[in-house]
Amino acid sequence: MATSIDSANTKAVERMVEARPVLTGMGKALDLIPGMHENLLLHAGPPIAWEQASGPLRGALIGALIFEGRAGDEEEAERLIVSGEVSLAPCHHHSSVGPMAGVVSPSMAVYEIENRTHGNRAYSNLNEGYGKVLRYGAYSEEVQERLRWMHEVMAPVLGAAIESCSGVDIRALLAEALHMGDEGHNRNKAGSVLYTKQLAPHIAKAAPDAATAADVIEALGDNALSVLNPVMAACKAMADAGSEVEHSTIVTTMARNGTEFGIRVSGLGGRWFTSPCPQPVGLYFPGFSAEDGNPDIGDSTITETAGLGAFAMAAAPAIVTFVSGTPQDALNATLEMYEITAAEHSSFTIPQLDFRGTPVGIDLRAVVETGITPRVNTGIAHREAGVGQIGAGLVRPPLALFTEALVSFAEEYGFQ
Amino acid sequence: MDDPSVPDDKAVASPIATLAEIRAGSYYDSVVLMLLQRALAELPGVLDAGVVMGTPANKALLAQSGLLTNALQGAAPEDLILVVKAESESTCRSALARVDEFLATRRSNQTGAYRPKSLASATRMIPEAEWVLTSVPGRYAAGVAREALNLGKNVFLYSDNVSVEDEISLKDTAASKGLLVMGPDCGTARVSGIGLGFANRVRKGRIGIVAASGTGLQTVMVGIHRLGCGVSQAYGTGGRDLSAEVRARSARHALALLEEDGETDAVVIVSKPPEASVAQELLSEAASCRKPVVINFIGYVSNEDRNSAPSNIRYARTLDETAEIAVRLTSASGSQGSYGKGSFTSQATAPLSRLVPSPEPQGFLRGLYSGGTLAYEALFLLQDSLPLVRSNGPLPGGKVLDNPHRSEGHTIIDLGGDAFTVGRLHPMLDNELRIRRLLQEAQDPETGLIVLDVVLGDGAHEDPASELAPAIEEAVAAAAQDGRTLPVVGVVIGTDADPQGLYRQVEQLEGAGAYVFTRHDDAMRAVACAFAGGGEGRHHIPPELKLCVSKSTGDVSNSSAFAAINVGLESFTDSLRDQGAEVVHVDWRPPAGGDERLANLLTRLR
Questions:
Q1: ipTM reported for the complex, 2 dp
Q2: Can you tell me the distance from the alpha carbon of B442 to that of B432, in angstroms, rounded to the nearest whole number?
Q3: Could you give the CA distance from residue B485 to residue B483 in angstroms, rounded to a whole number?
């Protein structure tokens, strides 16, 4: 039996590693995302009801309904959701991922990623940049205005540019960015510059006028997270390629909705294992403290699931101040993750570790055996809607999640 | 928590309080526990502290010290016990409140290079390592050893409390892979010039050793060094290897390795008496060995056996004599080595005319040993001089001590015995248990003479005499206050190259009033004489050997590269590093955090 687990895991991880996610285009969520409909809002993390939703998630849901023109204010938005007229579903149930609140509404523009190796697709929304943004639960007029510009002006140009350059190979872009000090989750500085550089000439050609081209290029180039959303969708496409492999104990989803942390396991289909979200440990921006922080939120843990983020920390010593202290700690963070992963990535390598592949494919068994839980690099949201990011740091999902999943796996496959 | 009736606010003259805490399912390196216990005991107002795993033996020890509260009776072996006795309950409370702080300080010191969490990662970091040292708690040790064998490594298995079934299966697996398993319960070895576990620094030389006993091996190594010779390889087998069940699986393998070893001219085999049929098998293998073999089975071999021994076999009576015979054999065989060429000059091992005064007329012997084989040799060497010596590890047919924590008549205790070491450090590393016992014996009006062994070398306590000497002084003074003289005999097993400094240790013990010997058999002769009413308690030099040290001091440092992975006691990593070996330390934790149900499930899912 055990050999069948090992070979199932090998298969699941090989599929994750061999997946080649390419950014192929952009369109409306309603048109592209499977199962999307007029009365559906997607959100980060495992399933959740309005009653349990935290401040930032509620704010983003309200903001999305205002953006859609379905609600005029908070009360109306809340009524729509509580009455069931508008339903909620995890992004992960619709081949999608979104950072922080991760809210995607029907008319929002989304990136489309195609896994050229296995053919599956994945989606993510556009990154709004910093400050008051929907993903942190802000929904003021200023936020709405920004969203409208992004969707009416930026998205058509960006979509045309992506098509014009016949797609952006995100796996290749990430491999290069890791050699430039990114880890693909909290640090996407190099990747965002590479992304902007590749699209810039196409944007110049696709834009209706020079001023628009300049605005779009500036928006992409100024935002050190502009590539985060395509990267997350790429990671989703890779993780999905490894999911639903019978007998596999590889973790294929880790996601948080601001209330609960949830994981899913390749050999256990779509089943979520959830537990209350821990609070990240990290550094807070001046004027904020742990008391202001929301429990961890967002689908961005898909990067760690795919062997990036904290798992590739050794490549990004510049951001260790957020999570620990010294460049040695950055190396140790990655080295620790090898203890719980099944393979080393063939495309993502770390110069600081003599070009060793990043640790990839979290094995449930190894987590339970060693008691080492996956490290996650994360941003910290204010617990009130709309305040935004107040820090960054490290979080680890509770060990109990993995124990519970392992016991369920054993029951499912008759190991009890 | 006990005694809730004690009011907290009565800071002045509040009664002594004892508070305890149990942490279920915790695991810490026993060195960490020892340091924590010390840190707690040193806090102002704290009178005593205990930090141990909740094994029955440890609970018995706590009871001895009046630290076993009602709340602790129910502690399980996998529970961590924290107990503090202090001048007031609030002092107890604040001491216990600092536990996490002390544990955290320790952890924060461990920054820097990555410490792998598993053998597999360690192997990746140091693929050239051929040896894995394991000193994790017994119930996990077989698993670690098995993994090491599967990774193609030889195993030094220090852990005890490993089942005999596991021992046999490990040794069979090893044999099928051409690997050696030393242990379980193997305390000492010397491989390629590097000491593993508790090992003295001795010259490289041409005598190979197979030993089923740790201190037996150490004493022979030290003796060889003192005589100016050196050791090629010294393999431990674990104390149970020569039993009827295990049938000398490791000893036979080790003997074969030494027979093939080009750097070995003579072989020494040391063990407590083996099971009879196993002894015969091993003797016949030794008889067919192409090299001279010196055997010391500590009293097992009869005079007829001695006389009818095959030509390549010599029997020795004491451990020190074993070293002498081996040295004589190698020099006779004319082999070249770094050891003495020609005449040996004499090395004073202790003041030659040291006399141990006779004990009080009704006084009994109390031997408090850290070395099991030394304790056993003491029983053997004293059997004709003292009637009925009780022990927790008696000679065949000897009298077992009813309660190992309470001496009765003449008593020789092995404080390294299983009953004392489950979930706590060996007395060679942690003197505390022995000091408590020493003071306990000193209070006992029946105690007439105390013997302590002090074993030096890598892996052992860094300065045992610095802790034992004040305790000896206190013991002697306590007896004096009662109007009794209490001679204390110290036997220091160590070489001039050992990190603790042989002479520094001897001086400190002598300074405290102990009668110090560096040969165990000499000490036993002196003790026997003291009980016989004084007289010839002199240091004994066999007339036919004008020993000892040669002018060639030899090379104690190793030249060959040695690499190993250590799983368990950090002090082993430190000592390997001190000796210049390459070593990677595994930051080991029990599988699934010690949850047996999950661990079993994981085994099925592997």
A1: 0.89
A2: 15
A3: 7
The answer, yes or no, to whether residue A264 has pLDDT greater than 90, is yes
pTM for this one? 0.81
Nearest by CB to residue B118, choosing from A368, A370, A415, is: A370
Lowest mean pLDDT, pick from B43-57, B445-459, B536-550, B561-575: B536-550
Map residue B133 onto helix, strand or coil.
strand
CA–CA distance, B498 with A392 (Å, rounded to integer): 52
Partners of A41 in the β-ladder:
A88
Shortest Cα–Cα distance, A249 to chain B (Å): 10
What is d(CA B185, CA B156) in angstroms, rounded to the nearest whole number? 9
H or E element in which residue B147 lies: helix B138-150
Under DSSP, the state recorded for B431 is: -
Q: Closest approach of chain B CAs to the CA of A46, in angstroms?
A: 26
Instruction: Sort out which chain B residues have CB atoms less than 8 A from A406's CB and list them.
Output: 598, 601-602, 605
* Whether residues A290 and A185 fall in one domain: no
CATH number at residue A96: 3.90.1710.10
> Cα A200 from chain centroid?
24
Residue A3 placed within a domain = no
- In three-state secondary structure terms, B222 is helix
The CATH number of residue A337's host domain is 3.90.1700.10
Question: CA B226, CA B496: separation in Å to the nearest integer?
Answer: 8
Give the pLDDT confidence score for residue B257 in this predicted structure. 96
Give the model confidence (pLDDT) of A318-343 as tens digits: 888 775 578 888 999 999 999 999 99
The parent domain of residue A198 ranges over 20-232
Q: List C-alpha distances in Å: A231 to A191, A303, B290.
A: 9, 8, 70
Element (H, E) at B82: strand B80-86
Domain assignment present for A10: no
* Mean pLDDT computed over every residue of chain B: 86
The answer to the question of residue A2 being in a domain is: no
Determine, for residues B602 and A369 on separate chains, whether the beta-carbon distance falls below 8 Å.
yes
Q: Which of A232, A254, A287 is the last residue of a domain?
A: A232
Contacts made by residues A316-321, CB under 8 angstroms, sequence distance 24+: A316/A181, A316/A182, A316/A183, A316/A186, A316/A187, A317/A181, A317/A352, A318/A181, A318/A187, A319/A183, A319/A186, A319/A187, A319/A377, A319/A392, A321/A283
Could you say which of A204, A232, A260 is where a domain stops? A232
Q: Are residues A57 and A165 in the same domain?
A: yes
Q: Dihedral of CA B224/B226/B229/B232: which sign? A: positive
Q: For chain B, list the domains and their CATH numbers.
A: 17-108 (3.30.1360), 130-345 (3.40.50.261), 364-531 (3.40.50.261)
CB contact under 8 A, B601 and A339: no
Separation between Cα atoms, residue B327 and residue B79, nearest integer Å? 49
User: How far is Cα B192 from Cα B326, in angstroms, rounded to an integer?
Assistant: 19
Distances (CA, A) of B137 to A21, B158, B215, B492: 48, 10, 21, 29
Q: What is the per-residue burial (b if ≥16 Cβ within 10 Å, else e) of B552-574?
A: eebebebeeebbbbbbbbebbbb
Q: Do B604 and A2 touch (CB under 8 A)?
A: yes
Residues A312 and A404 in one domain: yes
**What is the rounded distance in angstroms from the CA atom of residue B366 to the CA atom of residue B389?**
9
Q: Work out whether strand B194-197 and strand B188-191 pair parallel, antiparallel, or are unpaired.
A: antiparallel
